[in-house]
Amino acid sequence: MRLQLYDIIPKLSPYVKMVCTMDCEDDADTRHIRVLPDTCVELFVNYSSEPVAMIEDELHQKSIATFRMSRPMDVQMRKGAGCIAICFYPGMAYQFFHVPMNLLSDRTVALSDLWHGLAAELEDKLAGLSSNEDRVQIVQKYLIQQLASDRRDLQVDYCLNQMRLSSASISVGRLSAEIGLSQRQLLRSFQERIGLSPKEYLRVSRFTHSLEHLKKYPRISLTEVACQSGYYDQAHFIRDYKEYTGYSPRQVINEQHILF
User: Fold this and answer.
1) What domains can be seen in the chain, in order of their start residue?
2) For 212-235, what is each residue's pLDDT tens digit?
């Protein structure tokens, strides 16, 4: 499969983490890969006549959005498929889909269910183009159209930034006190805009932080990875890996079909 990264236009850069094209030019379907949860939402806009992918044993013919918040997904690209992939920063997909994220968490949803007739219109335009550069520009223009007005929640943005700066070690109680909201109010805001509770978001973030350690320092001990990632003990570290990957930490390192 051929991947190509593209520049993100300035108006979208606060919301969009990555834009790339994915072309499966091989004579056979790609092998199944397990994509791990990372609290991000991804949009896959299909510009080919082939189904875009098989996800969790369900064949998706048209464009989709995946809300991979807190569980892994098994994905297989289909031969001849071509799509544009948009990865949003945590909490930013809400700006483009205007649906409470907790209703979509850990699901794969047809873009036509979110954007209705606009999804088919976009697919038709992309299919008529021969250049991926032109396709990427069109998709980004549609995203700006959906953005319309910025509806960002500055309190949620503040919490997300503090969670990132603390490597997911800050407490929900402290965040609640700093922004002047009750924990119940903060819970509602997070479920609407992120798709997870603050506590769940911190837990998945701690897990993804540990994955970064595994990737960057493959030779250090798992005990040290757990400690540096904010885990209080090895038992919680192993439990999270079992839940979020289906494997032990050591197996995650060695399994070739796991993407992280």
Assistant:
1) 2-147 (2.60.120.10), 154-254 (1.10.10.60)
2) 888 888 788 889 999 888 898 889
- Sheet order of strands, 40-46 included: 2-5, 16-23, 82-88, 40-46, 64-68, 108-110
CA distance linking residue 178 with residue 29, whole number of Å: 50
- Does the pLDDT of residue 250 top 90, yes or no? no
Q: Which pLDDT value is given to residue 67?
A: 95
Residue 98: which of 48, 58, 151 has the closest Cα? 151
Pick the more confident residue, 228 or 137: 137
Task: Provide, rounded to the nearest whole percent, the portion of the chain with pLDDT above 70.
Answer: 98
Amino acid at 223: T
Mind giving me the DSSP string for 142-177? HHHHHH-S----HHHHHHHHHHHHTTT-S-HHHHHH
Tokens read off for 171 = 């407490």
